[in-house]
Design goal:
The structure is a homodimer of 311-residue chains. Chain A has 311 residues and is α+β, with helices and mostly antiparallel strands. Chain A has 2 domains: 135 residues, 60s Ribosomal Protein L30, Chain: A; 147 residues, PurM-like C-terminal domain (Phosphoribosyl-aminoimidazole Synthetase, Chain A, domain 2), CATH 3.90.650.10. Helices cover 32% and strands 28% of the residues of chain A. The first copy, chain A, has 10 helices and 13 strands. The longest helix of chain A has 19 residues.
Chain lengths: 311, 311
Amino acid sequence: MEADLIARHFAGLGAARTDVRLGVGDDAALLAVPAGHELVLTTDALVDQVHFDARSPAHSLGHRALAVNLSDLAAMGATPAWALLSLNLPRVDEVWLGQFATGFDALARQHGVALVGGNLSRGSLSITVQMAGLVPAGQALLRAGAQPDELVYVSGTPGDAAQGLLAGPGSALRARFEYPTPRVPLGIALRGIASACIDLSDGLYADLGRLLAASRCGADLELRRLPVSPGLEAALGGEAWRRVLAGGEDYELAFTVPLQRQAELEKVARSQDFPVTCIGRTRSGAGIRLSLDGNVMDFTHPGFDHFAAGA
Amino acid sequence: MEADLIARHFAGLGAARTDVRLGVGDDAALLAVPAGHELVLTTDALVDQVHFDARSPAHSLGHRALAVNLSDLAAMGATPAWALLSLNLPRVDEVWLGQFATGFDALARQHGVALVGGNLSRGSLSITVQMAGLVPAGQALLRAGAQPDELVYVSGTPGDAAQGLLAGPGSALRARFEYPTPRVPLGIALRGIASACIDLSDGLYADLGRLLAASRCGADLELRRLPVSPGLEAALGGEAWRRVLAGGEDYELAFTVPLQRQAELEKVARSQDFPVTCIGRTRSGAGIRLSLDGNVMDFTHPGFDHFAAGA
């Protein structure tokens, strides 16, 4: 039954790649790695009642499970290649599986990713994806590369996903939660331009804080520069900036760019239509300092913590 | 808290490897792949109430979660390199985490494996490990390579783990279930010798059947040749062979060897003390035919199926 389910729903998912010597169906997948590249590996999981609930369509879960991993590769500047999928299911639901596979497949094909292995187990619903990607040796984007006096950028409009989740099904922002856009082409374009990069899963404030901590510097952000979507503006008005900073589930990129590479970044962003916004500047010291028209604003947010309540 | 837990229990787990450019702590791990090698990727999960229960010590689960993945690499003839760990935990239990990490670490070090990433989520207890290994290009062992008139071998004494699980804590065979031995050095030694290979997770009969199906041939097995441990013999006497065939959770290797390579295999096995037993011979056709002193025996066993009851 397990082998049948895998054959019916998961064999051949994603793109066809000539570097897949052996995909689903043996003890492991066998893959050709091109010379001069480093391998980039990551894993992330979606767990029922933590990352989603019964209102989340299976098609969206297939998309998100892959997207959150693609986003990690994007943050490294890596080109996605191969995915493994480990599914725990309480029972066999062929309709659910079909819709999940369709959502996964569409995003995988869009990014040239082949599903090369995985397994199904009975268990509480949880979805673990492992992604492997490639980056030319020495060109990966790390969290730790920022220096003082560089520009701080963010992609897209953070906060929309968190607001969409609160709004519930049917709201226009809900799609930003259910179908996040992993910024893979942007990450690849940032090779050689960005000095540090991170993807936003726990919110801009928390994740940018991690990049800064890894880089041992601080940053000044100007609240008026934060990108706010029309939908978020309509929902929250003057308080929208708080959601932009605290949000979560954005899967946008935050990154730093040395001043002398700003023109190059802006040119690439224009020519490829990447939605990026300069929101501030790094400085020596530590932490994020927020200001509005020159006045320092108070903001603290711990970021999302799975174990905060239960620990 | 999540980052704290990871730092406290999982940072630096396993072997130190110079090919790990970046391990735990960024958006993804960054790894150097040597020229002339193919990448081998696999994932397997242990789920509470399916693969273990409350009687399973955390130390054993740390070992097993890695061992079942190492076994997949062994079956490919791959050299293990890097692991990712995705843990869903219902609550933070520092003692449990510490024991789990110790069991994982000991086996990882034994096989030169570095833990390079992963994540923790709140959720029903389940453990998903992803393993990456390397094999010289073109030398991987596949399931599909067997030809008729080759020798069929198995390592170790299958059936012990299943018997140990039934016997419960305290029995001597229980250790074969709680601490399976992934046959990594044997798998590596079988490069260029074995024509096909598979690891035994669902039982010798079911898994050898998969190898034969992939290779489009059948096999004749002689019951008197099946390796039976003294413990299994003591427990089951003349019926022990049924457990050897049906067992499950063995993580031994079944493989085929062309006649002209038998001497080489036996020499390697002797010199490196690999416990391997020739149990029969492949033939054209399909399926496994069992005989006892020339008489064909009847045996059917579907293998373990997680969804057999619930589907």
